[in-house]
Design a protein that fits this description.
With 182 residues, the protein is an alpha+beta fold. The chain has three helices and six strands.
Length: 182
């Protein structure tokens, strides 16, 4: 036994019995060796690929939704026109059996078809562009195909309308084809 003369006695430790601090250092060294640090480039590549995949899915989904909206719009507009198309077919059939006395009824039927066509256009939001004799010419709405001198009309006024124009909301579908005076 060692004598106790007031001095501290230090015993050398075995290598197997390491202090807790030394054990922690050894554990960290082993952990570094076993689990390598993640490569920042690999992580960025994974994030990029995930983002790219998400974007591609979004793009495809948007294209499908756009196509579906287009199909729905075409089906809706076509449905609006089907009654008119049926009535035109009936009018054509009735004119085959028409005689001289039924000309007035054929004309009245054609006028009704024109009214029905205007109603269908109004129902889907398409309106006729204002273009009557004396209306001021607007190049955004009208297409001038002829010029005439007319003392009754002012400068750049519509003299005659050759073809009606149509507008949907603020988008011109077809310009009015007109003759412009002076």
């Amino acid at each position: 036994m060692a004598e106790d003369n007031g001095e501290e006695i230090f015993f050398p430790q075995d290598e197997e019995n390491e202090s807790p601090a030394e054990e922690a250092e050894v554990t960290e060294e082993v952990a570094e060796e076993v689990i390598p640090e993640p490569d920042p480039m690999e992580e960025m590549e994974k994030k990029y690929l995930a983002l790219y995949a998400e974007y591609e899915n979004f793009r495809k989904r948007t294209a499908r939704e756009k196509e579906k909206l287009y199909q729905d719009a075409v089906a809706d507009v076509t449905g609006q026109w089907l009654t008119l198309i049926d009535n035109i077919a009936r009018a054509v059939d009735s004119t085959k059996n028409a005689d001289e006395n039924s000309v007035e009824s054929v004309v009245a039927g054609i006028e009704l078809l024109a009214k029905q066509a205007d109603d269908v256009l109004a129902k889907i939001g398409v309106t006729v562009i204002e273009a009557e004799r004396g209306t001021k010419f607007d190049p955004n709405l009208h297409e001038a195909v002829m010029h005439v001198e007319d003392s009754e009309l002012g400068e750049q006024e519509i003299a005659q309308v050759f073809q009606k124009g149509y507008i949907y909301k603020e988008q011109v579908i077809r310009h009015s084809v007109v003759q412009v005076a002076n």
